[in-house]
Design a protein that fits this description.
Blueprint (H helix, E strand, L loop, with lengths): L1 H26 L1 H9 L34 E7 L5 H9 L4 E3 L13 H12 L15 E7 H5 L3 H10 L2 E7 L3 H17 L13 H8 L7 H21 L5 E5 H6 L2 H9 L26 H8 L22
Parallel strand pairs: 1-3, 1-4, 2-3, 4-5
Helix pairs in contact: 9-12
This protein binds 2-acetamido-2-deoxy-beta-D-glucopyranose (7 copies).
């Protein structure tokens, strides 16, 4: 009797396990196939680096023979007229880097945190197409993001996203905020006046065009000058504070111009092979500031004796004199 009961219990038990297995194997059939599909060898990296390495599977195409090339995510965080356009063309000169431009300049994409996350997901999954998209062997993918494009507003969620998705932040700021202000004013003048055959250009590729754009000398409102400079400084400090817990690097435009070792630092951060990077962009405003501002005397008087006085004199040149042709 005992043996019979034992056999019956065993039978029922085995049956139930069988049923369960049939169920799970039919449910997860797709999943297991995908797991088998990805036999990428473990990359030889340090333990702490693992969160920063990704193997995206784009929905729209196959990464083909590069499917096992790890990809790192980055974001250039900057402010308008701080050299980030130029910096991005340098990064995009690398065969393995795709920086997709100022994606959040389009308002709907930054209208709330869900649209932001959705956009970022598309970029980091290599499904975003722009002129910067490279072939399947992209090893670093990112975008350029201005602080006033939803970044400060949604900073908490974005920091969280950066941490979970292993996004490295590349801060690019300008030291001389007075020069930046001239560039902002000149650029907004150009948007209306369009001296280059009626087209608005924020960046130019020939000395001739640069010369035309540099002809305009903005007049700076001396009353608001100090307050404006202070506000930019505060925004920068706040951004650094918000994002200090993410993996990041801080660069200054002037330093990158003077010292190309900074570009090596960036390539090392993104773990791409080191290359000599080139940009075709030509600087618009060069030379001393006194020749670039209409009311130079006012500006000089206003800044004398303030912490910003050094902006009046500071200049920067690349050591070797072949910065731009
Ligand atoms: C088997 O799967 C169905 C639906 O897929 C589910 O409703 C059912 O509870 C599962 N049975 C077991 C034993 O897991
Ligand atoms: C990088 O710049 C050089 C010089 O302008 C150019 O010849 C080369 O094709 C560029 N490479 C890429 C990947 O854009
Ligand atoms: C976010 O914005 C998009 C586009 O403006 C809108 O369709 C969507 O409903 C918004 N989502 C939330 C949660 O507000
Ligand atoms: C960079 O791109 C080249 C050619 O597109 C590819 O052969 C190489 O594996 C890539 N390097 C990395 C680190 O992904
Ligand atoms: C503007 O027009 C002049 C001739 O009128 C031409 O030489 C020049 O290439 C044009 N520049 C651009 C940016 O279209
Ligand atoms: C500077 O800005 C203030 C405040 O907007 C304005 O009242 C003043 O007229 C401006 N000064 C000049 C010279 O434009
Ligand atoms: C250039 O930058 C590197 C680090 O990015 C630094 O170690 C080096 O001292 C700098 N060189 C000069 C001349 O400032």
């Amino acid at each position: 009797m005992i043996v019979l009961v034992f056999v019956m219990v065993c039978g029922v038990y085995i049956c139930s396990i069988c049923l369960k297995q049939i169920n799970t194997s039919t449910n997860t059939g797709l999943l297991t196939v995908q797991m088998i599909e990805k036999p990428c060898p473990e990359p030889t990296i340090e333990q702490w680096e693992i969160p920063y390495v990704h193997y995206p599977k784009p929905k729209t195409y196959s990464r083909a023979e590069c499917a096992c090339n790890p990809v790192r995510n980055f974001a250039i965080l900057s402010m308008q007229r701080s050299g980030s356009g130029w910096f991005e063309t340098l990064l995009n000169n690398h065969t393995n880097i795709s920086s997709n431009g100022e994606i959040f300049s389009v308002k709907v994409r930054r209208s709330n945190i869900s649209t932001i996350v959705e956009t970022l997901d598309t970029i980091y999954n290599l499904d975003w197409f722009s002129s910067a998209s490279k072939n399947e062997c992209t090893a670093a993918v990112g975008l350029k993001w201005m602080l006033n494009q939803g970044l400060m507003q949604h900073h908490e969620e974005i920091v969280e996203y950066f941490k979970t998705r292993g996004v490295a932040a590349i801060f690019l700021f300008r030291r001389n905020l007075l020069r930046r202000m001239i560039s902002v004013l000149a650029n907004s003048y150009d948007r209306d006046a369009k001296p280059l055959n009626g087209t608005h250009k924020s960046h130019v590729h020939s000395p001739h065009e640069a010369e035309i754009l540099a002809k305009y000398k903005p007049k700076i409102n001396a009353t608001l000058l100090i307050a404006n400079l202070k506000q930019v400084e505060e925004t920068t400090a706040k951004a650094l504070e918000y994002f200090k817990s993410t993996r990041h690097i801080i660069l200054y435009y002037e330093d990158v111009v003077k010292n190309r070792t900074k570009l090596i630092d960036v390539q090392d951060l993104l773990k791409v092979p080191r290359k000599d990077l080139k940009s075709r962009q030509v600087k618009i405003h060069k030379g001393s500031l006194s020749s670039q501002i209409e009311n130079w005397d006012d500006v000089q008087k206003t800044l004398k004796g303030t912490p910003y006085e050094s902006f009046l004199h500071a200049d920067y040149r690349r050591r070797r004199r072949r910065r731009r042709r």
